[in-house]
Amino acid sequence: MTAPAGCQLIGRWRIVEADLWDRVSLDLAGPAVITIGADNHGEIAFGALEASLDLGYGPSMVFFTWAGSDEGDEVTGDGSAELLDDGSIEITFTYHNSDEAILKAKRDTSSTTC
C-alpha cells in the first residue's frame, strides 16, 4: 500500500523531545529525525539508534515496524506517529520486549506535505 492522497505525515520531521531521554541524548550522533516516505518506507535516527521503517498509512497517522542498530546491537520494534492539532506529531516508539518511548517531532522546515 502506498500513502493515501492527502496524507499529512509524509516528509522529514525533527524529533524535539522524548519522555525517556533529554535533548542531548536524542541528538547524540546527529540531529534526531524521522522520515516518513510515500513508498511504505521511512527512517528514524536518534541517540545511537538508526533504523528503517516499514509503514502503513492513514490520513493523519502512520503505523510502522522497524529494524536497525543501537550502539552496534541489532534491535527491532514497532510504533506509530499521529498528527496533533498543533501540527507536530507524537510518535509511540516501542523496542521489541523492552522500552516504550513517546517522542514529539516538528516538521523539518525543508520538508513539505504530500
How would you describe this structure to a colleague?
By secondary structure, the protein is mainly β. It has a domain at 11-61 and 83-107. It is built from one helix and eight strands. An eight-stranded antiparallel beta barrel has the order 1-2-3-4-5-6-7-8. Strand 4 and strand 5 (61-70) form a beta hairpin. It is globular and about 35 Å long. The two termini are 15 Å apart.
Summarize the structure.
Helix content is 4%, strand content 55%.
Give me some keywords for this one.
114 residues; mainly beta; eight-stranded antiparallel barrel; 1 helix; globular
Topology of helices and strands:
Blueprint: E1 11-18, H1 23-26, E2 33-36, E3 41-46, E4 49-57, E5 61-70, E6 73-83, E7 89-95, E8 100-107
Antiparallel strand pairs: 1-2, 1-8, 2-3, 3-4, 4-5, 5-6, 6-7, 7-8
What would you report as the Rg, rounded to the nearest angstrom?
13 Å
Q: What percent strand?
A: over 45%
The geometry reads as: globular
Distance between the termini: 15 Å
Largest sheet, order of strands side by side? Answer: 1-2-3-4-5-6-7-8
Which spans of ≥5 residues are poorly predicted at pLDDT below 50?
none
Biggest sheet record:
8 strands, antiparallel, barrel
SSE sequence, one letter per element? EHEEEEEEE
Look at the helices and sheets and give the structural class: mainly beta
Helix fraction? under 10%
Report mean pLDDT, rounded to a whole number. 90
Number of helices: 1
Annotation, overall tally of beta strands: 8
